[in-house]
Design goal:
With 64 residues, this protein is α+β, with helices and mostly antiparallel strands. Helices cover 27% and strands 25% of the residues. The longest helix has 12 residues.
Length: 64
């Protein structure tokens, strides 16, 4: 099963919750979320999901 991580820089308000739980998947650059692993490997998928759930403005989407 594949997974794709998508982020909206328009919605991102740089809370950083995603980076705190999945720094290998997400980063913040100039106050905007950057997806480092658009198709994360199996071992990073749960952290990617958690990062998306913890975003208070729903700037991250997981497509499975």
């Amino acid at each position: 099963m594949s997974m794709r991580v998508e982020a909206s820089i328009e919605r991102c308000q740089a809370y950083g919750n995603c980076v705190e739980v999945a720094e290998d998947v997400y980063d913040l650059v100039n106050g905007n979320v950057v997806v480092l692993l658009e198709e994360p490997p199996e071992e990073a998928r749960e952290r990617a999901r958690l990062g998306a759930r913890l975003c208070p403005v729903s700037a991250i989407s997981i497509v499975e």
